[in-house]
Amino acid sequence: MQRNFEHISVEEAKTLIAEGPVQLMDIRDPDSHAQSHIEGSIRVDNQNLNEFLDQANRKIPLIVYCYHGNASQGAAEFMGQQGFEKAYSLDGGFKRWHDLAQLESSEQ
C-alpha cells in the first residue's frame, strides 16, 4: 500500500522552510504549542481541522509535527489523503527540532 506522506528529517525540514513556501501543522496540545513551537506553525486539532482544510493550499508542502514524530505520521497520511501534494511527517517531532536548536545555539 502506498503512503500518502513522506518522512522528513529536521535538517531537511529546515532547508524546505528556508526555501519556502511551506505550511507547518502542530498537532500537540494547546499548552505545549503556547509554550514553544516552530515559528509560523498552526496548531490543528479536531476543533479546527475543517477550517484548516478549507484554508490550506494543497499545492504548498505541509510538514506535520507532534511531540516525538509518531502521531504526526497518521496525521500526515490523513492530510495526503485530503489532497495535499506533499505531506511530510517530521522525524523525531518537536523534541528533535528543539534539541537540535539547543545544540546549535550552544555551539555558537
Annotation keywords:
108 residues; alpha/beta; Oxidized Rhodanese, domain 1; five-stranded parallel sheet; 5 strands
How would you describe the overall organization of this protein?
The protein is an alpha/beta fold. It has one domain: Oxidized Rhodanese, domain 1 (3-Layer(aba) Sandwich). Helices cover 45% and strands 16% of the residues. The protein has 5 helices and 5 strands, in the order E-H-E-H-E-H-E-H-E-H. Strands 1-5-4-2-3 form a 5-stranded parallel sheet. Strand 4, helix 4 and strand 5 form a beta-alpha-beta unit. The N and C termini lie far apart (45 Å).
Count of helices? 5
Mean pLDDT: 95
Q: Quaternary arrangement of the chains shown?
A: single chain
Poorly predicted sequence stretches spanning 5 or more consecutive residues: none
The structure class reads alpha/beta
CATH class: Alpha Beta
Radius of gyration: 13 Å
Query: Largest sheet, described in full?
Result: 5 strands, parallel
CATH homolog superfamily: Rhodanese-like domain
- Give the total of domains: 1
Strand content: 15-25%
**CATH T-level fold name:** Oxidized Rhodanese, domain 1
Distance between the termini: 45 Å
Order of strands across the main sheet: 1-5-4-2-3
What is the helix fraction of residues, given as a range?
A: 40-55%
Summarize the structure in short.
This protein has 108 residues and is of the alpha/beta class.
Question: Which helices and strands occur, and which strands form pairs?
Answer:
Layout: E1 6-8, H1 10-19, E2 23-26, H2 30-35, E3 42-43, H3 49-55, E4 62-65, H4 71-81, E5 87-90, H5 93-107
